[in-house]
């Protein structure tokens, strides 16, 4: 989109025009998210498609951009907000790198195979590929953690910001920092992570990226694959929700195995997020989460 990111803090009286400000003016829903971004500007955290009025209570919330439109465009009178599904979930995605799983999920939301919207990206690296992709598509980016500032952005601030975005679920997609306890407690059973091995094997602190695949190959394991699990206060110890198996070939390099696992990650994560947004995750009496089949509600995986 050729838009330039802008890191800014929002003032206490920041304001977005309300829907009534445009009363009588038709909108063009052929543009994704109502208002295709034509320039970057600061906007409060809890805006919805650039239309909802809001005021920010704190000036400590950091953003690398939000979107607005330079003008209101026309569309036929019979197409409007009612076209949106009322049950679409609001998703926050956390990344530290290229964000290929984030991209796969976002593309699925645009195609309609996931009944949700990525409303904010959180990253600990503001210049990573995932952040660049988010800014290209007009998704606000929050930098966390941030320590080199007079007023640090605390875990409580992050919880407040996500609440202002009205986030339903948090999806970790290659986020390499431990999730703060405050966030885990506020979003219990609503934070998912994907790990590139068959947990509980080859998980925990220090097991990430190629380190995982090197360890798998060195162990002599014949199978590996991605695991999606709910997040608790430790690394990779939350309840397992879904797994997919890939073979470890006799003369695999870590890079070859990583590519094979990543291919399955993209499909698995999209399938799981689709189930999450459709309320097809149930919890067994012993605390194990299961995915209800869309085709046959009596079947679970």
Automatic annotation (TrEMBL):
<dbReference type="GO" id="GO:0004644">
    <property type="term" value="F:phosphoribosylglycinamide formyltransferase activity"/>
</dbReference>
<dbReference type="GO" id="GO:0006189">
    <property type="term" value="P:'de novo' IMP biosynthetic process"/>
</dbReference>
<dbReference type="GO" id="GO:0009507">
    <property type="term" value="C:chloroplast"/>
</dbReference>
<keyword id="KW-0808">Transferase</keyword>
<dbReference type="InterPro" id="IPR002376">
    <property type="entry name" value="Formyl_transf_N"/>
</dbReference>
<keyword id="KW-0658">Purine biosynthesis</keyword>
<dbReference type="InterPro" id="IPR036477">
    <property type="entry name" value="Formyl_transf_N_sf"/>
</dbReference>
<protein>
    <recommendedName>
        <fullName>phosphoribosylglycinamide formyltransferase 1</fullName>
        <ecNumber>2.1.2.2</ecNumber>
    </recommendedName>
</protein>
<dbReference type="GO" id="GO:0005737">
    <property type="term" value="C:cytoplasm"/>
</dbReference>
<comment type="pathway">
    <text>Purine metabolism; IMP biosynthesis via de novo pathway; N(2)-formyl-N(1)-(5-phospho-D-ribosyl)glycinamide from N(1)-(5-phospho-D-ribosyl)glycinamide (10-formyl THF route): step 1/1.</text>
</comment>
<dbReference type="Pfam" id="PF00551">
    <property type="entry name" value="Formyl_trans_N"/>
</dbReference>
<feature type="domain" description="Formyl transferase N-terminal">
    <location>
        <begin position="89"/>
        <end position="273"/>
    </location>
</feature>
<dbReference type="InterPro" id="IPR004607">
    <property type="entry name" value="GART"/>
</dbReference>
